[in-house]
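User: Can you predict the 3D structure for this chain?
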Amino acid sequence: MFTGIVQAVGRIEAVTPLAQGVRLTVDIASLERSGVVLGDSICVQGACLTVVAIDGARLAFDVSRETLACTVGLDAPGPVNLEKSLALGDTLGGHLVTGHVDGLGEVVAFDAAGESKRLRLRVPAELARYVARKGSITVDGVSLTVNRIEANVFEVNLIPHTLAVTTLARLAPGAKVNLEVDLIARYVERMLGND
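Assistant: Here is the predicted structure, written as C-alpha cells:
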C-alpha cells in the first residue's frame, strides 16, 4: 500500500529481457534506502514492484508480461517516480494507492495556469465512472485531486512543488500515463452490485 506522495525520482538504467517479461535495474540513489530489503514493494511509476536484487543504490525488479501490457514507462531507460510502501503509523499525505495500474491515460493538454500547470487527461471509457470531481486519482504514481471531469476527460492542477519532485513536468500532449482510480470507488461499486 502506498500514498501517492512520491519520495524520489529514480532512473531505469537497464531493461533485461526475461522469458516472461523483463528485469529492470533502477538507480534509486535519491530515495531513502534504509530498511529496503529483498521482497519489499516499491511503487515505480505507479506500479507496485517487488525488489528482487540490491546492489548499493541500484534495485532490480522483475516485471511480468501482464504488467508490461497494462503500463507505460517500464520498458525502457528513463526517469521514474518512486515511493516505498506505507508502514503502519505513517502519515497518509495522499490517498490509499495499491500500485495496481487500472489503465492508461493520454495527455490531452498541458498548459500553464499561473505558477502551476493544468493537466487534462483522457481516461479509458470503462474507468471514467470512477473519476469524480474533488476525488483522488493516481497518475504515474502521483496522488492528485480531480478538478473537473467531462465525459472521459478529466483535469488536475499541478503545483510547482509537484512538478519539481516528480516526472510529471516531462509530459506533453499525446503522452501516455499509468492511471489508478480511487480504491474506495471500486469497492463502493462492488458493494452496490454494479460491477
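The chain has two domains: 8-84, 103-191. The mean pLDDT is 95.
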